[in-house]
Amino acid sequence: MPRYAPSALGHIPEHLGIERAPAGTAWVVLSRLGLAAGSRLLVLGGSGGVGLFLLQLAAAAGVVTIGVGRRAMHDQMIGLGAAACIDYVREDAARRTLTLVGGPVDAMADLTGGTLAAALPALRPVISHVLPLAAAAKAHRIPEGRHAGGKIVLDVTGS
Ligand SMILES: NC(=O)c1ccc[n+]([C@@H]2O[C@H](COP(=O)([O-])OP(=O)(O)OC[C@H]3O[C@@H](n4cnc5c(N)ncnc54)[C@H](OP(=O)(O)O)[C@@H]3O)[C@@H](O)[C@H]2O)c1
């Protein structure tokens, strides 16, 4: 279960209710992109909870969207305002977009979390100490007074 800092949380506006809460996220995404009417927006994960709201909000703002999601969701995406859909299971979304639009899009929203997830294994952990659980008190003392130089790991496997 992910944990969030209180500053990263907010109340769901009463008029949205829990069912429409993802619309708030979609609204933030669209606002930050600042697209003018007629712009072209590629929505990766357009078939998801946030994506289906983003397609509707974008359509209301006159933004032309291409929704990327599995085939079974295409009719719904089109019904909610997508100008076209791409099936990420069978198609290369980037190539198909270029073919559909005849050039690059103006913006892309990635609601799949995929980019970051794919990058995580490539991140290098910086660990300064690996200590047994019995040395927990020492592990607490290391960062006191100076920078630890990396993460301190307590190895509980030998406990
Ligand atoms: N829901 C919220 O209120 C909320 C609030 C804040 C932040 N967020 C963040 O916003 C993001 C989206 O949330 P969500 O609730 O919309 O998630 P979701 O309902 O799981 O939607 C993700 C969608 O992405 C599709 N997808 C998966 N792999 C894809 C790929 N390679 N290319 C294109 N589409 C792909 C999924 O399709 P399949 O069904 O085929 O897998 C699914 O429809 C997440 O990162 C979430 O943490 C959500």
Summed up:
With 159 residues, the chain is of the alpha/beta class. 33% of the residues lie in helices and 18% in strands. The protein has helices at residues 21-33, 49-60, 74-79, 93-101, 114-119, 136-141, and strands spanning 40-44, 64-68, 84-86, 107-110, 127-132, 151-155.
Roughly how much helix do the residues carry, as a percent range? 25-40%
Query: Which sequence of SSEs, written as H and E, runs from N to C?
Result: HEHEHEHEHEHE
The CATH superfamily title of the largest domain: NAD(P)-binding Rossmann-like Domain
Overall CATH class of the largest domain = Alpha Beta
Strand order of the largest sheet: 3-2-1-4
Largest sheet descriptor: 4 strands, parallel
What is the level-2 CATH architecture name of the largest domain? 3-Layer(aba) Sandwich
**SS element count, helices:** 6
Shape field: elongated
Account of the protein in words:
The protein is α/β, with parallel strands linked by helices and 159 residues long. Helices cover 33% and strands 18% of the residues. Strands 3-2-1-4 form a four-stranded parallel sheet, with helices on both faces. Strand 2 (64-68), helix 3 and strand 3 (84-86) form a beta-alpha-beta unit. Helix 1 crosses helix 2. Residues 116-123 have low confidence and may be disordered. Bound molecules: NADP nicotinamide-adenine-dinucleotide phosphate. Residues 21-22, 25, 44-45, 47-51, 68-70, 88, 111-114 line the site of NADP nicotinamide-adenine-dinucleotide phosphate.
